[in-house]
Write a structure and sequence with these properties.
CATH topology: Amino acid/polyamine transporter I
CATH class: Mainly Alpha
Largest sheet: none
Structural class: mainly alpha
Order of helices and strands: HHHHHHHHHHHHHHHHHHHHHH
Number of helices: 22
Number of domains: 1
Length: 467
Amino acid sequence: MAKKEPRLRERNRPDQNKDRFTFSEHPIAIAVRLGAKATVSESRRPMPRSAKKNPLKRFFSLLGPGLVTGAADNDPSGIATYSIVGAQLGTSLLWTAFVTWPLMGFVQLMCARIGMVTGRGLAGALRQICPRWLLFIAAAALLGANIVTIGADFAGMSDAGQMLTGINSRLLTIFFGVGITLATIYFRYYQIAFVLKWLTLVLFAYVVTAFILKPNWASVLYATFVPSWPRGHNAWQSLVAVLGTTISPYLFFWQASQEVEEEKAMGRRMLISREGATKREILDRQLDVGAGTFFSNLVMYFIILTAALTLHAHNDTNIESSRQVAEALQPLAGSFAATLYTIGLIGVGLLAIPILAGSSAYAFAEMFVWKQGLDMPFTSARYFYAVVGASTLLGIAMVFAKINPIKALFWASIINGVLAPFLLVGILIVSCDRGLMHRQPSSWLSRIVVGLTAAIMFIAAAAMFIL
C-alpha cells in the first residue's frame, strides 16, 4: 500500500466525476496556498447539475459524516448493550428510541456546526474556553471508555467470525486489529469515508431479523407509544446505559473532526480558509445528520425488540457475550436470523473501531496541538497515529486478558452516560459564543434541545445512584 501524501484534493474524490468540478475552484485553492482568506461564498462549490435535477440522487450524495457517525453508534458493544436491555426488560424501553432520536440529532448537528464554522474539531474549540487540565481529564475519560469499547467490539467481532468460519477467535482478533490499524494509517480520508459509508448497510440485518420473528405488532406498538417509566435500580441503570450508548461522547468528537476533514479534502488546509459555512452547507448537513441519527435509532429499536422477543420471552436474561445472543437466536428465531445477527456484528465492528480510535486521537491531538488528520502521512502525524495504534493494541490486550466484554462495555456505557452531560455543557457554551462561532451560533431551538438533553442525562445519572 502506498503511503498517504498530503495534497489538495477535490471533494467527493471517489466519484472521479470531472463534471462535478469547475475551474472556479482553482483561484480559491491558490488563495488557500498563499494564506489568503477566501470568503464563504467563494469557497463553496456549486451544486452539481445532476443533483439539481434528481432530488433522490442529491439526497444520497449528501449522506456522509452524519450518516457514518449515526451508524457507528450501533457498534458491537452498543448492540450488546441494547440486547441486554431487551433481554432484561423486554419491550418496556422501546419508547426510548423515539426520545433519543431528536436528542441525538440536535447534539450531533451542534457538533457538526462547531466543526464547520470554527474550522476546528471539538477539542480544539473547547480549548478556547476551558483550561487544558480540564480538557485532559475529559480526553482521558474518553480514551479509557473507548479502549474498553474497542476491546468489547473486538471480542464481539472475533466471536462472530469464529461462528461463521471456524477460525480461532484470538487469531481473528489480531487479524482485525492489525488490518484496521494499517487501513487507518495508510488509506486516505476519502477512501476511509467511502468504505465507512457503505458499511452502514450491514445494520439493516437487525431490522430484517426483527421482522423474521413475526412479533405481535399490536403489543409492540403499545409498548412503543405508551411509555413505561423505569422502576428500580436496574431499570434506571439500563436507561442510563441506553442514553450513554446513544448519545456517546466519542461521537461528539468524531462528528466535529470529520467536518474539518471534509474541508481539508476540498483543499482548505489553513484554519482561516475553513472558518464559516453557507446556509446551504448547514442545511445539507442537517439532512445528513437527521437521516443518520434516525437510522441509528431505528436500528436500536429493532435490536431491543429482537432481544425482547427471544431472550426475554424465554427468561434468558443472563447475557455474558454477544456470541451467546447469536447462539440463542438460532433455536428461537432460526439459523437465518442468527446468521444475520452475526454478520452484522462483524460489519459494524469494522465501521466503529476506526471511529472509536480516531475520536480519541483527534481529542488528544487538538488538545496538545499535534499534527493530525487521516490524510496526513504517518511520519508527519506520529503522535496522532500513536493514539490510534495504542487504543487498538490495548483493545486487543483486553480480549487476551479475558476480561468479560459485556460487563466491561456496560459499565463503559454508564461512564459515557455520566461524562456526556458535562461535555454537552461545554458544547453549549462554544455553540453560543458568537465570536468563536464567527457570528453563526446555533439556533435557539438547538440550544434548548441540547440543554434539555444535558438535564435529562444529569437526572438519569443521579437517579441511577440514588434509587
